[in-house]
Amino acid sequence: MNAQLKSDLENARQCLLDTYNLALTFGGPDTQDVESYLNLAADLSVISEQFKRHEASLELAKETRTMKEFVDEYKRQQQNLEKKKCNAKNTSEFKNFRQQLMQMKSLQDEASASGRGASRVECDEFVMESEINVYDPITKQRMANPVKNTLCGHHYEKCYILEAISVNKRLRCPVAGCGNKQFVQQQHLVDDNLFKVRLQKLAEQQESEEEE
Question: SP-RING-type domain location, by residue (predicted)?
Answer without folding.
Answer: 121-204
